[in-house]
Amino acid sequence: MSTDLKSRIGTAWAAAWNHGDTEALDQLLAPGYVRHGRTAQTREDLKAGIAACRAALPDLRTVVDDCLVADDRAATRWHSSGTHTGPLLEVPATGRQVTVSGATFSRVENGLITEEWVTWDPRQMLQALGIITLDSGFEDGSRLEATTA
User: Which InterPro entries does the protein's record reference (predicted)?
Assistant: First the structure.
């Protein structure tokens, strides 16, 4: 199952994220699929989210950097990039290049992914859109003084 699942993950992700063919996920995600995060998402919720991302970033490309499969689990490290040319999360188009990266951890039953946990840093996206800066306190020349008691 390891090689087959890796291949199916890569194929379905490329179809959905890179080309907008979210129906390809039906061959990978179980009908009762749940994506855990701030709120639980169904397979249909995920498809709608991908469509919204692609509307805002029509040249979106997601690359599977690494995928490990063992027993009933899969871990996928990925990165995505695209140009922000449409509204995203109530932010009007900026024309800026957006790049984010993360990891997805999946549970598999009968060859289909039943649950996923996704981790990524949304601050990367907010910084790329110019909404926030991620400057450290050290970049203005200030120093953290060590004190001893």
Answer: Cyclase_SnoaL-like (IPR009959), NTF2-like_dom_sf (IPR032710)
What's the CA angle centered on 67, arms 21 and 32, to 5 degrees?
55
DSSP-derived 3-state class of residue 30: strand
Q: What is the dihedral of CA 88, 90, 96, 100, to 10 degrees?
A: -50
H-helix or E-strand spanning residue 127: helix 122-128
Q: What are phi and psi of 65, to 5 degrees?
A: -80, -30
pLDDT for the residue 137: 54
| Closest to 77 (Cα-Cα) out of 87, 63, 91 | 63
pLDDT confidence bin for 132, thresholds 50/70/90? confident
Tell me phi and psi for residue 117, to 5 degrees.
-125, 125
Percent of the chain with pLDDT over 90: 75
Domain locations along the chain: 2-128
Does the domain at residues 2-128 carry the CATH identifier 3.10.450.50? yes
Q: Give the residue carrying structure tokens 């169904």.
A: 42
